[in-house]
Amino acid sequence: xxxxxxxxxxxxxxxxxxxxxxxxxxxxxxxxxxxxxxxxxxxxxxxxxxxxxxxxxxxxxxxxxxxxxxxxxxxxxxxxxxxxxxxxxxxxxxxxxxxxxxxxxxxxxxxxxxxxxxxxxxxxxxxxxxxxxxxxxxxxxxxxxxxxxxxxxxxxxxxxxxxxxxxxxxxxxxxxxxxxxxxxxxxxxxxxxxxxxxxxxxxxxxxxxxxxxxxxxxxxxxxxxxxxxxxxxxxxxxxxxxxxxxxxxxxxxxxxxxxxxxxxxxxxxxxxxxxxxxxxxxxxxxxxxxxxxxxxxxxxxxxxxxxxxxxxxxxxxxxxxxxxxxxxxxxxxxxxxxxxxxxxxxxxxxxxxxx
Length: 355
Ligand SMILES: [Zn+2]
Ligand SMILES: [Zn+2]
Fold this sequence. Notes:
With 355 residues, the protein is an alpha/beta fold. It has helices at 43-50, 98-101, 138-143, 159-168, 185-194, 206-213, 228-242, 258-266, 289-293, 309-317, 335-343, and strands at residues 5-9, 18-22, 31-40, 67-74, 85-88, 125-129, 134-135, 175-179, 198-203, 217-222, 250-253, 273-276, 297-300, 327-331, 350-354.
């Protein structure tokens, strides 16, 4: 525990993050110190850094809420976690309030999100509540050919679409359409497939569509080549050809763009379920009454309750959801350069920063 811990702090929007030493030891009762193996760069981080989205914690603040690592110290009551490999949930509910007791921890008003409410994971170490940690079995991890840093993306990029697909009620025989086949959508496709759906992926990047065609998408459509009407026609024709339902489609918007949201809306059919997974500050104009006319519904989910992390991790460790083709590791020391590259969409895969 003698090595100096450090984290990269955001001091103001668009000002390069700076490295700061800090003392994480000893953790308070109920908390643990996690030595970070990797922390994924999420578009939410970019929203704080580039778009001026406000963090709940005052600046300076280390961003990063997609963390895996090893527990190197535990406070009173959390001793059993010492030495274990873990995934830190992106949203850590208090576990005690009325909402938490009713299983609605995702909207707990006392929740802690690393890199938003508390110091985040772009760091050598992070201090977090032990409650909600998801244990990673090192033997299964090795058998799956994965490093601990690879599964950092389970903290958000995998579990958020997992919760969306699970809550939407996707089941064997369903038709699911995923808009955006990148860092989050690539997992959404695989998860919907694992739940038994036949999946159509839509993107504007032919390389991403090519990758996802090998990982669960039965049909890929390039949104640059079809207008909204043609996209819906192509999905309808595919459904007919495969004997899939013409109604009750599941549409998951994962691109986090206004154009993707408009496309998702245009794909609503009778009884459809729209899952809004991606985030953007942009606005779209829609005829909201389509929900009424189609007897459809639109859902959103803020992360995923920690209780569901083991099931999502199991999909990864069993190989049903492949993470390797969708992540790339970079040194944490390059954080400012990587933020720029992801912002300018020069990196299509999920960037994981490794201390
Ligand atoms: Zn995120
Ligand atoms: Zn709570």
